[in-house]
Amino acid sequence: MKFPISITVKPKSKRENIEYLDDGSLKIEVKExxxxxxxxxxxxxxxxxxxxxxxxxxxxxxxxxxxxDVK
Length: 71
What we know:
The chain has one domain (5-59). The radius of gyration is 11 Å and the shape is globular. It has one helix spanning 38-51; strands at 5-10, 17-20, 26-29, 55-59, 65-70. It contains 1 helix and 5 strands, in the order E-E-E-H-E-E. By secondary structure, it is an alpha+beta fold.
């Protein structure tokens, strides 16, 4: 997988999930609400566990569409 990665976040989901899309981006579902940075922190935690590395949000902290990087 090439980095950085485009992701779309769906907050307030019933489950946490990572879905690979045909265009090379990811759809991330997290249980937390998109307030007080809770959804962003949940995305970082979920993706860090998935990749086994540190994950950073590079852009769009307040949007559902984000760019992440993995170190």
